[in-house]
Amino acid sequence: MSCFLCVGKSREKIESKNNSSYIEKKQSTISSADKVKIDMHLNLSVNDKSEDDSKHDQLSLDVKNLNLNDEVSTDGKVAKTFTFDELAAATGNFRVDTFVGEGGFGKVYKGYIEKINQVVAIKQLDPNGLQGIREFVVEVLTLSLADHENLVKLLGFCAEGEQRLLVYEYMPLGSLENHLHDLSPRKKRLDWNTRMKIAAGAARGLEYLHTKMKPPVIYRDLKCSNILLGDDYHPKLSDFGLAKVGPIGDKTHVSTRVMGTYGYCAPDYAMTGQLTFKSDIYSFGVVLLELITGRKAIDHRKPHKEQNLVAWARPLFRDRRRFSEMVDPLLEGQYPVRGLYQSLAIAAMCVQEQPNMRPVTSDVVTALNYLASQKYDPQIHPIQRSRKRSSSPGKSEGHRRVTSNDSETSDRSKD
Ligand SMILES: Nc1ncnc2c1ncn2[C@@H]1O[C@H](COP(=O)(O)OP(=O)(O)OP(=O)(O)O)[C@@H](O)[C@H]1O
Ligand SMILES: [Mg+2]
C-alpha cells in the first residue's frame, strides 16, 4: 500500500488500490442490506437478504449516480436545501470569528440561520481538498436516512454551482479530541464517568449504523475528532462521507479501497481492503483506549515503542498488574479499579487482530452501558495511585490521513 499525505490539517488518510482519482469511478460492487450477525460465541451467521433488494436501496443507487434531489426526504425526515446566500448571511460571510475548525472536507463555521431559527455548524467543501462530491453525497444521504440521538443531525445542504456546504446542528462542546488531547492547563479534564458516558453513547451510535439502519452502514471513520459533544458531554458521531453500505447476502465483507485514518484503521482491512462491521469495532477499541489512557492513537512525539497506541497497549493487556500504568495520569487516580479492568478488557477485545474475534456492536453497547451506569464517586471510592506519563507532551501532531492516490499529493498542514 502506498501512502501519501492528503486532506486538511495534518491528517493522513488511508486509501489503497492505486486509483487515480479520490472519487471512486468504479464503484466496488455496491452492496447493501445484509445483516451480518455474530453470536456471543462469535460464530458467523448471515441473515440473508437478496442482492436484488440491495440493488434498489436508495443509498447505493444515489451514491453510484452521485444523485441528490433538491430536498432529500425519507420517512418524513427532510434535509433542507439552503442557498449560498443564506449560509453566507448565517456566518457573516464566513467571518473569521465564526470559524470553528478545519478537517479533510474543508472549513467549519458556526452560524445562525434565521429561517430555521437555529444555531448551526456549516462545513464548506474545499474545492482543492481531496474529499469531494462523493463524500458530500454520501454524507447527505447517510444522515438523511439516519435518525438517532447519538448521530449528529444534518439540517440541510447547499449544492449551488461549485459550492458544496453541509449544515449540521451545532455541537457546543466541539469534538472529543479537543477534550482529551493537548489540553490547555485551564481546560477541564474529562472525569471517569464522563469518559464512560461518551464511550457508551458512541457505541450506541455505531450500533444504530450497524444494525438499525436500512441498509446497514459501515462507518469507516470512527475517531475522537468525529465524536462531537453536546451539552452535558452528550456524544454524537459525525462525518459519514466515508460510510459504506455493509455486505449483503452471504458476503461477510465489502471489497473497497482502504480509507480511514492511521491508528484507527483495522489491520485486516488495511491489508486486504476487505471492509466489515468489525473494522469499525477495531476503531471503536482505539477510541476507548484513548479515553482510558489519554493517549493518542498515533503520537509521533512519544518514544518509538509507544507511538502506536494499540502496539503499546497489547503487551500491557496481558498483565493485570500493569493496568494502572495504562490509565490517564490526568485522572489523578480517580477511577474505579474494577471499571478500569473491565473497560480495558473490552478495548482489548475490540482491537484484536483477528476481526472475527472482535465483539459485535450490540455486545459492546451492553458492556459499555453497564460500565457507564456504574458511577464512580471520588468522595466514596479510594483514589488510586497513578503513574506519570512516560513521555512529555509537546505540540499536537493530530492524526494524519493517507491515501494511496499517487497522482494527487498535498499536505495542507495548518498545525
Ligand atoms: N456540528 C458541529 N458542531 C460544532 N463543531 C463542529 C461540528 N462539526 C465539526 N465541528 C468542529 O470542526 C472541526 C473540524 O471538523 P471536521 O469534521 O471537518 O474535521 P476533523 O474531524 O477534525 O478531521 P477529518 O476531516 O479527518 O475528519 C472539529 O474540530 C470539530 O470540533
Ligand atoms: Mg470530523
Description:
There is one protein chain. By secondary structure, the protein is of the alpha+beta class. The protein folds into two domains: about 20-170, Phosphorylase Kinase, domain 1, CATH 3.30.200.20; about 175-405, Transferase(Phosphotransferase), domain 1. About 30% of the residues lie in helices and about 15% in strands. The chain is built from twelve helices and 19 strands. It has helices at about 50-55, 60-65, 85-90, 135-145, 175-180, 190-210, 265-270, 275-295, 310-315, 325, 335-350, 360-375; strands at about 5, 15, 35-40, 45, 70-75, 75-80, 100, 105-115, 120-125, 155-160, 165-170, 215-220, 225-230, 235, 245, 255, 260, 275, 400-405. The strands form seven sheets. Strands 5-6-10-11-9-8-7 form a seven-stranded mixed β-sheet, with helices on both faces. A hairpin with a 2-residue loop joins β10 and β11 (about 165-170). α11 packs antiparallel against α12. The two termini are about 25 Å apart. Mean pLDDT is about 80; it is low at about 1-10, about 15-55, about 390-400 and about 400-415. It binds adenosine-5'-triphosphate and magnesium ion (MG). Adenosine-5'-triphosphate binds near residues 100, 101, 174 and 175.
Helix content percent band: 25-40%
Query: What number of domains?
Result: 2
Radius of gyration: 21 Å
**What is the CATH domain class of the largest domain?**
Mainly Alpha
Small molecules held by this entry: adenosine-5'-triphosphate, magnesium ion
Unreliable runs, pLDDT <50, ≥5 residues?
Answer: 1-11, 16-56, 388-398, 402-415
Tally of extended strands? Answer: 19
Our measurement of the CA-to-CA distance between the termini, rounded to an integer number of angstroms, reads 26 Å
CATH superfamily of the largest domain: Transferase(Phosphotransferase) domain 1
The total count of helices amounts to 12
> Which percent band covers the strand fraction?
15-25%
The quaternary structure here is single chain
Assign an overall shape: globular
Mean pLDDT score: 78
Instruction: Return the CATH topology of the largest domain.
Output: Transferase(Phosphotransferase), domain 1
Structural class: alpha+beta
CATH-level-2 architecture of the largest domain = Orthogonal Bundle
Main β-sheet description: 7 strands, mixed
Strand order of the largest sheet: 5-6-10-11-9-8-7
